[in-house]
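task queued by scheduler; priority normal; single chain, no ligands, no partner chains; default sampling; output format set to structure tokens
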Amino acid sequence: MAEQFYDELAEEYHLIFENWDRSIARQGDVLDHLLSAEGIKKTSSLLDCSCGIGTQALALAKKGYKITASDISGKSILRAKREAELRQLNIQFFQADMRALSSVHSESFQAIISMDNALPHLITEKECIKALKEVYSILSEKGIFLFSIRNYDEIHKERPTSTLPAKRDHTITFQLWDWHQNSEIYNLRHFTMIEKDGTWSVSERLSQYKAYRREELNNFLHRAGFRKVKWLLPEESGFYQPIAIAYK
């Protein structure tokens, strides 16, 4: 379901942002600061294992990092390649499922990132731990896994059924969330509305998420082999979602 969702969204994903290029630069600044604080140098090998159309990979490559990128969505990878070429950035791209990273990536990495709430697409404990074990297996000794998720600890208090519409020039994006009864899983309907010559077109994509609490992910990370986990909330990191740093 995640592969189809992002294949369908690839050409319009940038419309989620008020200004995608500014968001790329801003996220690059935050990640550069966090990686530097963890001793990750620009010469270190990095992997973005859920790169999408390239928001973070482009940002870090522009900062001078040696970064490889992969994603489950082939169409997102094609878009990311185009964006890298436009910016004259040297990034190796691969199509890869997080649950099978070692079958695609033969080298090891000092740091692996997965941003923008990618991990909660893995909606079962078995799938999530399998992906985390794959990440662990291709990390160098003392490597780190840095990822972000929505603040589900807070979201669980109200279980919202939609996001506020984001209106930009000639576009509106919003989401509807349909929670499964007595479950932490919700179906997501993502809408993009685009205005052209006074007429609005609407596209809809479907996906599914598991609203993992931080303590549950801590447990999964330890079971996958990570020795320590540190969480940074937005007020600490400057990123728009909570960030976890897991240490091998």
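post-processing summary
- The chain has eight helices and eleven strands.
- The helical segments are 2-9, 20-37, 55-62, 74-86, 125-137, 152-158, 214-223, 234-237.
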